[in-house]
Amino acid sequence: MFPIAFIKNVYTDYYIMEQELATTYAPQNFYCFSIDSKASDIFRKQIHALSSCFPNVFYAKREFPLDSAGHYNSYAQFECLKILIKYHWKYVILLLSHDIAIKTNAEIVQILTWFDGTNDMMIIPVNPERVNLNYTWTFEELRIFKNGKHIFFL
């Protein structure tokens, strides 16, 4: 068994969220929704009701004003991590509202097995307003690679 945690920041289109969960759901995995504080009350109630249907589906009680520029996304995801840390999973996958899986659970497990504990992150240009440019941002200083492994691409 290879349990995976999925964290999704959501704000609208409940039925899409429900259908996406239905297509990717696996009982060994864990799912947590972080709801935008600006979401409608109906949407919020729907997510709460959905989480009550499954023992491995949760929602973060603390909400943040999320936006397309990424403000507060990390805070919202961290709230879900606080919930999921109590459970046994090997990887966490961070998603936004309309992100959908294009791989089956078995394919995701195979890819993550190949990763062997390493991480896959998208690199984008640095926003100087959000990053301390005086810090040393080398791989060695950040210590993000398991056993000194480096990035590889599939």
Automatic annotation (TrEMBL):
Membrane topology label? Single-pass type II membrane protein
Kindly report the protein's main subcellular placement as a broad class: membrane
GO CC terms, sorted: membrane
Which PANTHER family does UniProt cross-reference here? CORE-2_I-BRANCHING ENZYME (PTHR46671:SF7), PROTEIN CBG11221 (PTHR46671)
Q: What is this protein called?
A: Receptor ligand binding region domain-containing protein
Q: Where in the cell is it found?
A: Membrane
Q: Does the keyword Glycoprotein apply?
A: yes
Q: Where are the transmembrane segments?
A: none
- Pfam families membership: Branch
* Entry keywords, A to Z: Glycoprotein, Glycosyltransferase, Membrane, Transferase
Any one GO MF annotation of this record: glycosyltransferase activity
Tell me the domain of life. Eukaryota
